[in-house]
Specification:
Number of helices: 3
Oligomer: single chain
Shape: elongated
CATH architecture: 2-Layer Sandwich
Order of helices and strands: HHEEEHEE
Radius of gyration: 16 Å
Distance between the termini: 18 Å
CATH topology: STM4215-like
Largest sheet: 5 strands, mixed
Helix content: 25-40%
CATH class: Alpha Beta
Length: 140
């Protein structure tokens, strides 16, 4: 059975992020759900929103997705999170040809916004980059 558009996109984005050496030298791993023992810094997938954008004849979707960067002060904290966010943007923004999603056509992927915030523990910083991807799922 084929993946749904969000799962297919996540697989493609994960493969793309893991293939970019300039990014991977900055992080220990790219996770969907990191284990409790995950060493920082790492990247994980955050929230996703799937919005239908169908025409009368085609099934199309707009997917908003977030990539989270987790860091701690011993590694550079906020500055490190900002640096990793920048590398994530460089790896994905307007580079839809570099992201392969099986069973669908990725028409566009673009960076929308990003931020870095300190968490309640006073030590962990989480950077978030938000992207929008337009996916063509074929004809009805």
């Amino acid at each position: 059975m084929a993946d749904d558009p969000v799962s297919a996109l996540q697989k493609g984005v994960r493969a793309r992020l893991r293939s970019v050496s300039e990014l991977m030298v900055l992080v220990n791993a790219v996770y969907d759900q990191p284990p409790d023992s995950a060493a920082v810094p790492y990247i994980r997938f955050g929230e996703t929103d799937l919005l239908p954008d169908h025409t009368d004849t085609t099934r199309e979707y707009s997917v908003m997705f977030r990539i989270e960067t987790h860091t701690r002060p011993e590694g550079g904290g906020k500055v490190e999170a900002q640096r990793i966010n920048g590398a994530v943007i460089d790896a994905l923004d307007r580079l839809e040809a570099e992201v392969i999603i099986e069973g669908f056509d990725l028409c566009d992927i673009k960076f929308l916004t990003g931020n870095v915030s300190r968490q309640r523990d006073g030590k962990t910083h989480i950077g978030v980059t938000v992207f929008e991807a337009d996916i063509d799922a074929g004809d009805f």
